[in-house]
Automatic annotation (TrEMBL):
Gene3D superfamilies tied to this protein: 1.10.287.2610
GO biological process: microtubule-based movement
Protein name per Swiss-Prot or TrEMBL: Dynein heavy chain coiled coil stalk domain-containing protein
Signal peptide from the UniProt entry: none
Assigned GO CC terms: dynein complex
MF terms in GO: dynein intermediate chain binding; dynein light intermediate chain binding
InterPro entries xrefs: DHC
Taxonomic superkingdom: Eukaryota
Length: 118
């Protein structure tokens, strides 16, 4: 036997459960919709970035080519500088030997001059 009070409690409880489930489903739907919007925005951003990347590829290729040419030029200049540096080192050694020889002659001349001078 069901009393009117217990029947009203049953309806109230069922209504509360229904409201709770409805709110839960609405929350899940909102999360789902938010996720879809985020995926859509992300897809748009990826498309924009891909387009921008495609626009930058020729510039990147040109920059890479310019960099390669600059590296080759620097290598050639480095080799030339190394050759010049070695020639300067040889010349410096030769000049040092000549300077030492000239100093020896100068010292001998000064010594002979001291002997001659009273």
């Amino acid at each position: 036997y069901i009393t009117p009070t217990s029947y009203l409690e049953l309806i109230t409880t069922a209504n509360a459960v229904l409201t709770k489930k409805k709110n839960e489903i609405i929350g899940l739907k909102n999360r789902y919709d938010g996720g879809l919007e985020m995926l859509d925005r992300t897809a748009t951003q990826v498309g924009t970035m891909t387009k921008h990347l495609q626009e930058l590829k020729p510039t990147l290729a040109q920059t890479a080519e310019d960099t390669e040419q600059l590296i080759n030029k620097i290598e050639v200049q480095s080799l030339e500088a190394e050759k010049t540096r070695s020639m300067v080192a040889v010349e410096e050694a030769s000049c040092n030997r000549k300077a030492a020889s000239a100093k020896v002659i100068k010292d001998e001349c000064e010594q002979q001059l001291q002997e001659v001078m009273p």
